Each structure stands twice: as structure tokens, then as C-alpha cells.
Amino acid sequence: MAAGSAIQIPTRLPLLLTHESVLLPGSTMRTSVDSPRNMQLVRSRLLKGTSLRSTIIGVIPNTSDPTSDCDDLPNLHRIGTAALAVQVVGSNWPKPHYTLLVTGLCRFQILQLLKEKPYPVAEVQQLDRLEQFTNGHKSEEELGELSEQFYKYAVQLVEMLDMSVPAVAKLRRLLDNLPREALPDILTSIIRTTNQEKLQILDAVRLEERFKMTIPLLVRQIEGLKLLQKTRKSKQDDDKRVVAIRPNRRISHGSITEDEEEEEDHDDVVMLEKKIRTSSMSEQALKVCLKEIKRLKKMPQSMPEYALTRNYLELMVELPWNKSTKDRLEIRAARIVLDNDHYAMEKLKKRVLEYLAVRQLKNNLKGPILCFVGPPGVGKTSVGRSIAKTLGREFHRIALGGACDQSDIRGHRRTYVGSMPGRIINGLKTVGVNNPVFLLDEVDKLAKSLQGDPAAALLEVLDPEQNHSFTDHYLNVAFDLSQVLFIATANTTATIPPALLDRMEVIQVPGYTQEEKIEIAHRHLIPKQLELHGLTPQQIQIPQVTTLGIITRYTREAGVRALDRKLGAICRAVAVKVAEGQHKEAKPDRAELGEGEDCKEHVTEDAKPESISDTADLALPPEMPILIDFHALKDILGPPMYDMEVSERLNQPGVAIGLAWTPLGGEIMFVEASRMEGEGQLTLTGQLGDVMKESAHLAISWLRSNARRYQLTNASGSFDLLDNTDIHLHFPAGAVTKDGPSAGVTIVTCLASLFSGRLVCSDVAMTGEITLRGLVLPVGGIKDKVLAAHRAGLKRIILPQRNEKDLEEIAAPVRQELSFVLAACLDEVLNAAFDGGFAVKASLEHLNSKL
Ligand code: ADP
To answer: Where is the active site (predicted)?
Structure first.
């Protein structure tokens, strides 16, 4: 170190500007370097240099504002410390920087700045004479008293510290061995001082002055320690360890923090134990927790298991073992809440009210679990939320879509790294009560994997006979779930595992009719969107015709989710216009024009000037509502996405419209057929399932066997329809897999049209399963299918006769707009599907047979 070296520092030194700290000769400091100038210095001088000299740099405390560091070189402090760079460590995170370890050698003074870029270099003059330290007795005599006094204080200070710490003992020895002149610098950097004080010591070039300035700092530190010892008399041992001596800092400070942390941790563990004892957990859980806390106390903190056990115990304390909200169930109020929140869905509301009424009377939950099944966006989740509201319970939604691991439900055993409780226990922790409403969303989308079947885990959760002692793998003790009200939702029951389905009561939630959608939009969705976008009805007006336009031309869905999104898009566009309008000066002449427009009640499609962009140009005052008409719709939402006109696709023989049911609601489905010369092959395209393929074969067989009756011939006039003929049947929308028996009648109709050369009526849709004998069998999903046909603007629907009962479910307005043909056999289907009927050529056959 400085004491032994008699080196002369170079006269030209590169300068490192430090912000955070002041380096004094004889001390070592770690500093982080990230400013461009300093980085450059490190790179080109320290990392490239090979000689010892090249590792000597000048450290200048930068007293100016750190932010100005990047620009011009600040006014430099004239005095600095020449230092030896002992270590350079580079890192790229969080941003590129180096960490330097530098040891101060001696003071220097800047004589002249030689260059500023890329890093400053200065001509310097060495101030401390290093060699003077080696034969220091002379100066000791000169300073005499002052140095003696300083030495005494220093010894007193060090002896107040814990001598058992090796660094303190070493320091004590250093005090005797080091030349006295070096002590002020070294002790200043050890004791608690501010940067300002250190800077003063750095500036004190004369030794005498330096001694004089450091003595008060030592005294202050000694007084501070005395005070500390007094206040912590009871823990005298600890006091000694509370030191402010820097070289020991790493060790002593480390031991303080560790000690304190340990102490704190111990306190925490005691607190935890207290919490466990006072919590209302079950007896079994309490036993487990106490055992665990006993283990925790014996465990060193550094053990990974320590954190695991602690997390476990904290979760156990947090769980709502006995905490619940008070049910406030009043059926009349519940009815009002349900009615206020949801329009239509009478059947669902009725069943929910029945369920709640039974709960009120019986006061226990051992009833079936309700499962709402229906297309997306029909309000299943939001009814669940309303139920929680009526009961005054917490609501928590657990999305099960894609869950493929049973530990999703039941948690991992605690032996796994990163183990955690399942979603049920997590949900309980989140809501903080043991009787929330849990909505198990999308139970039909549970998947299976090698990690087990989550549906099987759900069985226990949902079984009222078992769930009072549900055991999560992580908790490993039973938790009572019997107070939780579970509601499940699904798009289809087809993919719900049967055992799970068996535990639930399915309530079908069908899609909405157009009229219902309009009402829902105006009663619920529009007010909600207006509020979301900060608009008022005085600023925007969406007439019912527009809503109908959005429903028919921009959405094709069973629920109202897309409708809600479109309304949101309209509100966003209007919000921009209103905000713009508020800032613009209303131009009088244009404003008049605007008023004129406002008077229009209903805007026809030809009345052009009212598009949203025009209204914006007028800079309308906010009190004038912006009317959303078809032009505005087109401006905001783009050209209509769906065409009402399906008849164009039916202008050739060999096309018919069927009705299909999908988990997303009903859909209309075109079936196309063509024939060509060939060897009697049937080609089917359009992603069909096995059942659909069978229907196609059935249809062809039936037609072939009845070809003579209907006078159906192939191209060469033969009644054997497949003679020299290939048939291709196509079901467009090929990306979606279609299956089910209900396309049978449609395929027959389509082929009959192909072979007879007649067009199927353009406004007819049909559904029904067929038999080889030509009977029409009933199918499911009638309500959704009828609604889909209605949405698509079709007028006549051919249904199996045995589905007549399902028509009652369909709302009266829809029923009135459609005509239904109930068919028991294929003859009736064909008769209804073609204009003028599809007559059996009975007379001809009769005649033939006679001949
Ligand atoms: P699901 O769970 O069936 O997919 P959501 O419950 O998420 O559908 O409903 C989507 C949105 O539609 C919600 O904002 C909901 O409030 C609204 N909504 C659906 N049906 C109705 C209804 N009958 N009355 C009022 N709003 C409804």
C-alpha cells in the first residue's frame, strides 16, 4: 500500500470522475462506472494497458450535478487522489457498466487539463510525498502533540469495538505500525463521515490542517458509540458489534445484518406460531402446522426447505377456515337483481330462482351443481356473478379451459420444487371467505394429459357428499368446501366427461333472437359502453334500426359478445369526435346544417351527409347527439361483413341449405352437389365426420332406390343414378369439422335437385336425420337452428315431425315470421323444398307396371 511504496506517480494522469464517493489515500473503494467518459477510460486505459503505470489513474470527486456528466466536462475539482486500479469487473445488466476496485495512493493537484475526449487527461503534481512515510519520525516530531492526540483518540475508538472481530484486531495493530501521517486519511474513510467532510479532508493538503480537521470527526464518532452503548446497555455485546468502521464493515456489518435478520426472523416465526394458534383452522390442520413450525424453528434459514415450509404455514394461516360472509337471501330481491341485470333468458332465471328458494328454505347446499350450457356471449358468466350478488357472497371465476393436469385442481405435493396449491384452494385464499360462489368456467374444455385427468379431480370437488373433506395435495389436510356454491359453464355437454356431467344439473342457455338482442343492446350493452367511454346519451344516439343493422350485417352469433364489441367500436369513434368537437370552434353556417340533420328521425340509406366524418367536420357542440346511421356504421365498422342474401347461392340445381348445431350456436350450412362422368364414385369434401359421411351414403342409396318413382335420371337418362356417373358432395366452410346425422334431409334434397335439374326454394332451410326407408327422424338443437335460419333471413323451415314440441321454446315473434313444415318422411321434405312440390310420378309408374 502507500506506506511501503516509494513510487512516483506519473505527471500525466487519466481522470476518473466519481459521483457517489470520495477516495482518500490509503483506503480502498469499489465504484461503479457507467458514464461514457469513464467507460472509455476503463476500456482504453485499464483493460488495454499492460504496465503497472497504466493502472494508475486520478480519481477526482465530481462535485457537479451528475446529470450533466454526459455533456461537456464539468468544472473539475482541483485536488484528487492518484489510485491504483486493482480490479475491473464488467457487466451488461441492467445496463453496460464496470465495477472498479481502486486503492488510493496519494493526493495530486491538477495543473492543466491536456485533453477532454474521449476521457480527460491532465498534467498533475503529486502533493503527498510517499517516501516521507517510510522515514516518518521526522514529521512525527514536527507535528508532535497533534499527532499524539490523534493517535490516542484513534486507539480509544478502536478499543470500543469488538476486538474478537479479526478485522478490528488488525486495525488496532495497524494503528501502531502505520506512520502517523497516514492515519487521518485512513480513519476518515473508515468512520462515519459525509462526502462533504471527506472532501474537506482531501482538500486539506497540509498535514497539520488534516489532523486538526479529523480529530473532531473522531470525537464525534466516539461520542456516538458511547451513546449507543448507553442506550443498549442491556445488550452490551451487541453494541460492540454496531460499528461504523469501514474496513470491518463487510464483516461486522454482515454480522449485524445476519444477526438482526435472524432475530427478525425469529420474531416472525414466533408471530407465525401465534397466528397459527389463534387461527380457527381445523384440529387436524393445527396439529400439522404445529409440527411444521417446530421443524421450522430448528431449520437453518439457508435451507431451501425453510422457505417452502414457511410459505406453507403462511398459506395455512391465510386460508379462510372459518371465515364466511353472511348470506342475505331474499327471493324477491334476487328476482329483481336477476331481472335488472339480464333481459330475457326466462327459463334460466326461473331455474336459478327455484334453486335459490330451495336454499333459503333448506339452508344447506347439498343440491345439484348448476351447469349453464350455451353458446358464448349469452350471459352465463354474468348470471353467475348476479347470483353471487343476490346472495351477498364473494365471486370467483376459475377458468378451466385447457387445464390438463390434475394438480391444476388439486395442487402439487410439497415435495416438488415450485409446488403450489390447486386453483380451488388458491381461489379461497384470494376471496378470503369459505363460502364464495365459484364459477367453473368452460368445464367442457378440460383436457387430459399424462399428468392425470383434471375432470376426475373435479369430481371430488363437486360431489356434495365428499367435498366437506377435500384434500389438496399441497395442503395435505382436509378443507371443507361444502359451503362453496359451485356453478359450472360450458358450451356443449358433448365433451363434458359423463361422470362429471352426472353430478351437475344442466340448464340450457340458448342464443337470442334478433329482437332480444336489440333489447339487450339498448337496455344493457349501450348504457354500459357509454359509461365505459365517458359518453352521455346527449352525445350519441344509436337508433334501433342501427342496432338491427349491426346485428344482421356485422355479427353472426348466438350471443351478444360481438355485438358488444361493435358497440364499443362505435363509442370509441364517437368519443374521438366529441373530444375533437369540444376543442373546435363551431362554425355557424355548418352548425345550422348540423341542426337540420338532428331533426331527422330516421335516416334512409340515401341520405348521405350524416356520416360520422361529416358530423365531426361540423365541430358539433357536445349537446347535440351524434346519430349513428348506416353511413356512420359503414364509416366506423367498414363494409358489412355478412350478406342477408342467401338466394344467390341457390340459383343452380344441386344446392340446398341445411341447419347445423355447433357449440357456438346454430348455423346455416350450404350443401352443394355436382355430377360428372365416372365410375359411380362418391366424393365428399368439407371436413366431415363419420356420421355425416354415413348420411351421405344413406341419401344416395335412398335416391337410387327411389329414382324411378321420382323420375330422376343421370346424364345418360338411366335411372341408375351412379351409372357412368361420379357424384361430388361438398359442404363449404371446410375448416370446421362437421358431424352429426341432421344433414340427411339436406343431402337428399340437394341430390334430388341435382338429378331433377330443379332449383330448391331459396328461402327454405331444413334439418333432420333420415333412414334407409325414407323416414325423417328427430334431431337436437332445434331452437338454435331455427334462430340461425331466422338470422339468415330464411322463411320456411323443414323439421322432423317429432321435433314439433321443440317449437314451443321459440319466441312468438320469431315463430310468426317463419313457416314450419313438419315432415315425417322424405316425400314431404321434397314436396316442401321445391316450388310446386316434388311430385311422385305415380301415374307413369302405374302405367309402366300395367304394360
Ligand atoms: P358467456 O359467459 O355466456 O360467454 P358473458 O356472461 O361473458 O357470456 O356475457 C357477455 C356479455 O353479454 C356480458 O357483458 C353480459 O353482461 C352481456 N349479456 C349477455 N346476455 C345478457 C342479457 N340477457 N342481458 C344483459 N346482458 C347480457
So the answer is: 742, 785
